[in-house]
Amino acid sequence: MDIRKGEGTWTDLCEIADGPGPYTMSYGFNLDLLCESIRKVGLINPPLLARNQEGSFDVVSGYRRILALKALGKRKVFCLDVTVALPSTLKRFLAAFYENLATRKFNDMEKALILNKLQSHVRKKEILASFMPLLSLPSHEGTLEFFLKLLDLDGEVQKALASEEISIKVAKFFVAMEKTSCRAVFKWISTLKFNFNQQVKFIDYLEDIRVREDVTIGALLCEEYFIAILENPHLNNPQKVKAVLEALRARRFPRLVQRQKAIESVVSAIAMPPEACVHYDPYLEDPDYQLEIKFRHGKDLKSAIRKLHALRELEAIPELWAGK
């Protein structure tokens, strides 16, 4: 496989299809920087083309470069015609794969595209043993099957995964969800801009409530209370995210939330000295309270301790893990 044997030729861009072809492995990209580079210094590396059965050209490598040139209004491009040098579909695909592998990092949707196209030419055993490690993926059949399922997700979800707006962990939830629920969850995540940790919490709560209450996720998120949060004009996105997560958590763990409120009621009612403060984990995951005292010298500390010692209300502070 010697690309150098390709024939250099000036090709009309109109002969090259706009859409992705059999060798394309680019997905979810922005052309702005590439266009600026070509505008400033020209096209440095020529794309690789190969004739297809219809007589037009397929892009073997350089799909983004071709799109950038078209966006800039160019009419011709200097390319390497590798129709003869790379006579088989597999050789052309591998040439594109290794060129990309050497120059950039693939996003998760690109990995899915590559694995899907390899299936037509390479045995599964070889994909697992040879290509999965090159894509920084474990050589597990389950991982291969999961990445192939990413191609069944809605286009908006795929784009969000490619641009890292959602995590691969969230994509695993989406692959397992039915379509209506997936679309409902994605609408919330994309509209309110949940961060990765918030995305996982959001889905965990929804899944737990779905199982516990035998309700669909779509129906749950359409409840009046949640719609009111989503459409509240007085809250910004971070405040809406916090509000909906707190509401879901209260619904998922009602007894825990009740206990939190009871503890907060007791602690906040104590007239603590201004230099002292009681802290505890608001999620009750730590069984211990912490006492913070601010002072400048020993006399201040002794004074604060005396004030605390005189507070009988301190004995009313309940044990955090009582009943556990």
Summed up:
With about 325 residues, this protein is α+β, with helices and mostly antiparallel strands. The protein has helices at about 30-40, 65-70, 90-105, 110-120, 125-135, 140-150, 155-160, 170-175, 180-190, 195-215, 215-220, 225-230, 235-250, 255-270, 300-310; strands spanning about 5-10, 50, 55-60, 75-80, 275-280, 290-295. It folds into four domains: about 1-105, Conserved hypothetical protein from pyrococcus furiosus pfu- 392566-001, ParB domain; about 105-150; about 165-250, no CATH class; about 270-315, no CATH class.
Features:
single chain; two-stranded antiparallel ribbon; Conserved hypothetical protein from pyrococcus furiosus pfu- 392566-001, ParB domain; 15 helices; 6 strands; elongated; alpha+beta; four-stranded mixed β-sheet
What percent of residues are in strands? Answer: 5-15%
Count of alpha and pi helical runs? 15
Topology pattern, helix = H, strand = E = EHEEHEHHHHHHHHHHHHEEH
Count the beta strands: 6
Low-confidence stretches: none
Q: What overall form do the CA principal axes indicate?
A: elongated
**Whole-number average pLDDT?**
90
CATH homology group of the largest domain: Conserved hypothetical protein from pyrococcus furiosus pfu- 392566-001, ParB domain
| Total separate domains | 4
Q: What share of the residues lie within helices?
A: 40-55%
CATH class of the largest domain: Alpha Beta
Sheet with the most strands, sense and barrel status:
4 strands, mixed
Tell me the span between the first and last alpha carbons: 67 Å
Question: Judging by the overall fold, what is the CATH architecture of the largest domain?
Answer: Alpha-Beta Complex
User: Helix/strand/pairing class, anyone?
Assistant: alpha+beta
Reported by name, the CATH topology of the largest domain is: Conserved hypothetical protein from pyrococcus furiosus pfu- 392566-001, ParB domain
Please state the CA-atom Rg, rounded to the nearest Å: 29 Å
**Strand order within the widest sheet?**
1-4-2-3
